[in-house]
Amino acid sequence: MKIALFSDIHANLPALEAMFTDLNKRQVDAIYCLGDLVGYNIWPNEVIELIRSQKIPVLAGNHDAKVGVLEAKGAIEALGKNYAYHLINDVNRKYLRDLPAHIRLAYKTADEKFDVLMVHGSTRRNDEYVLVDTPEEDVLAMMTESNASILCVAHSHKPYHRVLKSAAANYLHVINTGSVGKPKDGNPQGCYVLLELTATTSMRDPETLNVDFVRFDYDVQAAANAVENSPLPTEFADMLRKAY
Amino acid sequence: MKIALFSDIHANLPALEAFFEDLEHRQVDAVYCLGDLVGYNIWPNEVIDEIRKRGIPTIAGNYDFGIGRSSDDCGCAYKTDEEKAMGKISIAYTNEAVKDDQRAYLRTLPAHIRLEFQLNDDKMDVLLVHGSPRKVNEYLFEDREEKSMIRIMEQAGASVMCFGHTHKPYHRILSVNDEDGGLRYLHAINIGSIGKPKDGDPRGGYVILTLNPDSSMREKESITVEFVRFEYDVEKAAKAVEDSPLPNGYADMLRNG
């Protein structure tokens, strides 16, 4: 079974469209979105509607959750960085407010149980980073607490796959999906993940889970120009061009 | 948010196609399949392919679990000798028909999917299982004792539990005491069957769950459940059974629901 995981589109429609073009060439059995559909660019409605029309299960990222919080405080300003949220129409604001925080896939094999847990930030908060160098004991504590054997996170925009050995001598996996529309790892291409489980997948053997990071080209210039031609801070455009 | 839930297709391609057509007219935000894609009819591979190509998140039913492992046991609770004999023919036929790639897909399906919501400072877990959280082939009928149902849901940490397997749809609201003296409402939802209904109505059935983001588990209306029934070419599905090595009894079951 091949599962595609993507996140952190951040209202970047050219990047999302390029991702779907790439994804359509691969045979995947399920697709999940780990949140942050909005913020930083001018196409939040188009991004939400494209994902929604494909009925893809989506988690709430911190930016998605922030829209409701900003709204509750009163009107969202049309200038500066909040312009990115101001653009979102009422129907789509409601969609963002309804999203689950986590999605969990519980696997049972003949002699083993393992859970794939998808979160946006960490298992505890949607705005906490789980990075490639987050201390191993902290990550293990978080995974034990939330009963996750394969933890899929987003939020940092820096993709990685990390294998940790648990107290029970099992191999646990932490996978960061990177970012479709706002990478920060120095590579301006969009990024998503393909996770492959087979009949032999077991937490006793780390080689039995395949994790591929797919990078794809998209029209970075179009996305950066859109920022520059809007009330958004122009630095957002530079960040897209240089991937920081 | 509107979520469509369907299950128990049982290799009935005409019913699955009619379901997808019906679904197109409704605006849902996500779709999940609660298992039992195969068994009892002639289109197991086609049903798997249609669900796969749409990338629909799917969990394993008891029949999928058996076929995924080339087992001759589908975990079905047949009562009479006649049912057992018919069941043997169906699983042997399905094992023969299902191709390697499709079998590998069935084998790697998860057992449960859990959606963990955190709305309005309240937690609500929507748990999707095939039979029960404890066993893929446990039947949770509508008349199950309330205490037992609540215990199953609390043990599994489910505020909303959706399941299939019995092919008899229902929505049951159960109330439990909250820590602060109020009541919380749990929802147990059987989503019925796409391709082998057993409630006397031969039409296919599925569920649309609507979550109300302004609500909480302290209100009964935190979710609404709609049971959708749709027509499909029952005769075509029944005829396919009769023209195959499968027992004709399965055709009558489709005609009579």
Automatic annotation (TrEMBL), chain A:
It comes from the Bacteria. Signal peptide: none annotated. Residues 1-198 form the Calcineurin-like phosphoesterase domain. InterPro entries: Ap4A_hydrolase, Calcineurin-like_PHP_lpxH, Metallo-depent_PP-like, Pesterase_MJ0912. CDD domains: MPP_superfamily. PANTHER family: BLL5683 PROTEIN, METALLOPHOSPHOESTERASE. Belongs to the metallophosphoesterase superfamily. YfcE family. This is Metallophosphoesterase family protein. The lineage of its organism: Bacteria, Pseudomonadati, Bacteroidota, Sphingobacteriia, Sphingobacteriales.
UniProtKB/TrEMBL annotation, chain B:
Pfam families: Metallophos_2. InterPro entries: Ap4A_hydrolase, Calcineurin-like_PHP_lpxH, Metallo-depent_PP-like, Pesterase_MJ0912. Residues 1-212 form the Calcineurin-like phosphoesterase domain. It comes from the Bacteria. SUPFAM superfamilies: Metallo-dependent phosphatases. Coiled coil: none annotated. Signal peptide: none annotated. Belongs to the metallophosphoesterase superfamily. YfcE family. This is Metallophosphoesterase family protein. It comes from Olivibacter oleidegradans.
